[in-house]
């Protein structure tokens, strides 16, 4: 794959859609392209998260570890960004991530992402707003789920 392919893949990812061509080029140049066979784990819940992944091709299942085994939470495909929070702050993976099929990703280190934000403060503010909006939507979704659970008959 070429640098232009990586730029296209990044520009399709929600978090990076507002970046300029120059900013995308900086991220693409510093990103690491990785391939995972079906069944291979990208990361484990609870491990230190120091990067984000943009799915270029393939599919990944995110699951939560539980004493009785993992519980699938979400599927992610091309254009999805895994680890948005890890791009800006120290954190741990909240889920396991496993490739369902042959999967190709771009790995973006926190250091690279922070460097881009430091060089482009206006972009940092826009991404901050987007992450804040995403968090507010997540809180609303949790409140809706909580109301539904309270109304559900006990089994």
Task: Give a written overview of the molecule.
It comes from Oceaniradius stylonematis. One of its GO terms (molecular function) is DNA-binding transcription factor activity. It is a single chain. The chain has 155 residues and is of the alpha+beta class. It has a single domain, classed as Sandwich (Jelly Rolls). The protein contains four helices and ten strands, in the order H-H-E-E-E-E-E-E-E-E-E-E-H-H. A four-stranded antiparallel beta sheet has the order 1-10-4-7. Strands 2-9-5-6 form a four-stranded antiparallel beta sheet, with no helix packed on it. A two-stranded antiparallel sheet has the order 3-8. The model has no long low-confidence stretch (mean pLDDT 90).
Keywords summarizing the entry:
globular, 4 helices, 28% strand, four-stranded antiparallel beta sheet, 155 residues, Jelly Rolls, alpha+beta, 39% helix
Summarize the helix and strand pattern as letters.
HHEEEEEEEEEEHH
Q: Architecture, according to CATH?
A: Sandwich
Outline the biggest β-sheet: 4 strands, antiparallel
Chain oligomer state: single chain
Q: What's the name of the CATH homologous superfamily? A: Jelly Rolls
* Rg: 17 Å
CATH domain class:
Mainly Beta
The parts where pLDDT drops under 50 for at least 5 residues are none
Organism: Oceaniradius stylonematis
GO molecular function, one term: DNA-binding transcription factor activity
Protein name: Cyclic nucleotide-binding domain-containing protein
Domain Cyclic nucleotide-binding: 15-134
């Amino acid at each position: 794959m070429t640098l232009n392919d990586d730029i296209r893949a990044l520009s399709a990812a929600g978090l990076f859609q507002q970046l300029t061509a120059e900013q995308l080029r900086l991220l693409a140049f510093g990103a690491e392209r990785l391939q995972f066979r079906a069944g291979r784990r990208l990361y484990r819940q609870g491990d230190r998260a120091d990067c984000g992944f943009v799915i270029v091709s393939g599919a990944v299942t995110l699951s939560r570890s539980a004493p009785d085994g993992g519980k699938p939470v979400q599927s992610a495909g091309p254009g999805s960004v895994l680890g948005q929070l890890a791009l800006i702050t120290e954190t741990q993976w909240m889920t396991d991530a496993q490739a369902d099929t042959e999967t190709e990703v771009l790995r973006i280190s926190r250091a690279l992402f922070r460097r881009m934000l430091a060089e482009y403060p206006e972009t940092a503010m826009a991404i901050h707003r987007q992450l804040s909006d995403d968090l507010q939507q997540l809180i609303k979704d949790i409140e809706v789920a909580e109301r539904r659970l309270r109304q559900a008959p006990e089994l």
